[in-house]
Automatic annotation (TrEMBL):
InterPro entries: DhaM, DhaM_N, PTS_EIIA_man-typ, PTS_EIIA_man-typ_sf. Pfam families: EIIA-man (PF03610). It catalyses: dihydroxyacetone + phosphoenolpyruvate = dihydroxyacetone phosphate + pyruvate. It comes from Acetobacterium paludosum. This is phosphoenolpyruvate--glycerone phosphotransferase. Keywords: Kinase, Transferase. Its EC number is 2.7.1.121. Signal peptide: none annotated.
Amino acid sequence: MVGIVVVSHSQKIAEGTVELAKQMAADVKISAAGGLEDGSIGTDVSRILAGIEAVQTGDGVVILVDLGSAVMSSEMAIEMLSDGSNVKIVDAPIVEGTIFGAVQASIGASLEEVINVLAGTKSYKKF
C-alpha cells in the first residue's frame, strides 16, 4: 500500500490533515511531518525522513507539501535515503490531496495511480 507523508510548516496543520484523512482511510500509513522539534513553525529534514521511513511499505510514498522550504526539505530527505526512487513529492493541495491519496491507497492503487489522482486534485471543484 502506498504511504503518505504530509509536510507542513505547521505541526498542527500536518497532524490535523492526517487526522482527517485517517477518518476516510484508517488502514493507510500516513505520517505528519510538520513544524520544528521545538513546536515552532518551519520544516525539518529529519522529521520528514522519519515520516518517510514510518510509512514505507515497498509500494512507494507520496509527499504532499504546503509551500516553500517544505519542498526543499523533502527533496533533501529523499536524497538521504539509500533508495528514494519510489518516494515522490506531488504538487497537490495538501488537505484534499492527502484525503484523495489516502482513499486511493486504501483500495490498492499503485504509486502512479495515486500520483495521477493527486494531480487531478489541483482542479477539484468544491461546488
